[in-house]
Amino acid sequence: MGVGCWRNPLLLLAALVLEARLGHFQRWEGFQETSMSKTNMNSTLQFFMETYNNASNDTYLFQVDKLLRSQMQLTTGVEYMVTVKISRTKCKRNSTSNSCPIQSKKKLKKSFICDFLVYTVPWMNYYQLWNNSCLEA
């Protein structure tokens, strides 16, 4: 056995040392509890509500009533795992109003607790809904 058999283990050792020193730059630790930045939170919630309302058959629009939980994970972009309470508004689907109050009539009140996962590249204004589920509140 000559020097050649030591080359691969030495390269492996060098790679491991380099990884140990640089690993903190690329360590993705999974989802972390976070309060989203106001800009990212508003645009992510707006994207989710537009997607939800476009897919809904309800006569009225829904909007976020309360942000219950938000988690973030850095990947090639940013992933947000969010839990919100959404409620039916007084605005109908064809409404162009920017201000839609929550429905107050008892017969028309309806709320859901929704969990959703959005992948975003905020600096490119790119959003994609990866998963969502809503249960009546």
From TrEMBL:
Residues 1-25 form the signal peptide. Keywords: Disulfide bond, Signal. The gene is CSTL1. This is Cystatin-like 1. Residues 26-135 form the Cystatin domain. Coiled coil: none annotated. Transmembrane segments: none annotated. Belongs to the cystatin family. GO terms for molecular function: cysteine-type endopeptidase inhibitor activity. Gene3D superfamilies: 3.10.450.10. InterPro entries: CSTL1, Cystatin_dom, Cystatin_sf. Pfam families: Cystatin (PF00031). It comes from the Eukaryota. It comes from Neomonachus schauinslandi. The keyword Signal applies. SUPFAM superfamilies: Cystatin/monellin.
